[in-house]
Design goal:
The complex is a heterodimer. By secondary structure, chain A is mainly α. Chain A contains 14 helices and four strands. Chain B is globular. The chains are: A mainly alpha, B mainly alpha. At the A-B interface, helix 5, helix 11 and helix 13 of A face helix 3, helix 4, helix 10 and helix 12 of B.
Amino acid sequence: MNSNTKGNFLQGRFFGLIGIILLLVAPLPMPTYQQHILVLVLFYAYCASCWNIVCGFVGTLSLGHAVFLGLGAYISTVLLQQLSLSPWIGMFVGAIITCIFGVIIGYPCFRLSGPYFALTTIALGELLRIWVENNEYLFGVYIGGSRGLLLEQTGYQPVAFEFNGKIPYYYVMLVFLAVILYVTYRIKNSKIGYYLVAIRSDPDAAESLGVPLARYKLIAMAISCFMMAFAGTFYAQFFRYIGPTRIFGHALSVQIALIALIGGQGTVFGPLFGSLLLVPVTEFLSEHFGGELPGLNLFIYGVVTMLVVFYMPKGIHDYIVRFFSWLERLIGISKKPEKQKA
Amino acid sequence: MNMLQSVLLSIPHGIIQGGAYGAIALGLSVIFGVTRVTNFAHGGMLMVSMFMFFELYTRLGIDPYLGIIVVVPIMYLFGMAVQKFLITPLLKRESGTTQDPASLLLITVGLNNALVNLAMMIYGANYRNMPTKASTSYLTIGDAVFVTQWSKVIAFLASFLLAFALWFIINKTELGKRIRAVSLNRDAAAICGVNVYKTYAIAFGLGIAAVAVAGACLSEFYFVQPSVGDTFGTKSFMIVVLGGLGSIPGALIGGFIFGLIETVGAQFINTTSASMLSFLLFMIVLFVKPNGLMGKN
């Protein structure tokens, strides 16, 4: 399933098309709360896709990716509050700084393998979280400490990344998601992607064939951090509040990683599938049972993770694609099932 | 009290705090060293054992030190079950292909999430403590110069006992010989007739039993709460890596370093910022000496 993606962007073309149309019109007839959940679905899908670029393709497990989200959020928000710079521009400033930060961090980290890499990313996340929680000022610039930064509501200002209602946010995120999916697709079907997959399957063999390990891992890291920072800006503008405990927190990092892994690491649409499956369920559960049973939603995450690791080690992506291809053949839309082998 | 005095006084406090860190990390060191499983559910297991002690204390009035007799065997079996039903199938599945540590890591992350949030559903997020005898009586040295709870002193001593017990089991018994053989070379041990997966299960059970002992000591002076294991779990990992994989003295020394750096550091910056120092130290050590301070080559 993975080997034939070239020239076959949408494997279940018919259902893929339906899916795109659904994503385009879905929030329009919905009440605000459902729209909110849909925005979250796209947001987590986007974050998981960013994570996927570095960790899904290279195979190293980062459990501190929220750091880059937080950095992006803080940079654009501080720029907005101190210099009244539009987040649309601040977003790119944040992305560039986060990207540089990610490469500096990635350089020593990528020498470490497996659990050491995961532990270092956790340590990094905790380090930054504790630091931000305990410092209200950075070089005299107010960053809020543990109280976080509150963005004042100023009304409808598209130039300043502020809209009325959820719908505009939804479409902004949808565009972001389309971009990251396209980037993932391009990476996957380019030299970088092939190199990264080679590094994942066997780093020693890849190196002996002349694949420069460090450089390609860092390229992936740079792209991932750059895109992750955009999500941070979106987070700040959408929730109008950033708190270090959540945005630099270990829980968010793990959540992002789990969505991508459950969806299917190293696939283009896996993170989106993972998010579509997990986010509505858990948001619904925390909305309805959050009072009596706090933690039920994260409990579900835990159980689903174990089940997926056990029964679908490659994630749900392959099963979903296979199901829809089968459905297509069943209702006779796809005339050439052997197209799968092309 | 001047600065120097308070710094000097923080050293024994730090060592005592480090004993608790070391005790928790010991179990992880055994698991990590033998099975190479990154057990991210370690903190969750600690939390489970602490809630068991809490239940025994509130329902039956049994002191956690006495409760060890009940809880440790249960946790040993629990650890064996986790290894047998969750981890061994993955090891068997992946033994043919290239080893994928991600799935082993993930299943323990999932287990931890499930355990912590199950406890959250049952007990809620409230902080509970047990006013036991050891936690309400104090050791005083001099004219109230150095005051600490007896339970902390006991925890400090227990960490040495626990380390000795684990060292004895691993280095001086027949079972330990098997454990060492498996950790050195899984396949060679299997050829020599060692039941690898059974030994893994025993090692995992031992590690979890050890963390239950640490849980008893910890619950005497620390609050009991579903997310209590989160920080301890992460830190014990760093302590184990700092001390060197699978090294039992290393885990204890790593614990002392963490305890010292946090308590002494808290004299200069505030307490919450001080735990930043231990993460920083961990990262520096890993970059400079990836095998840990006491690690072999």
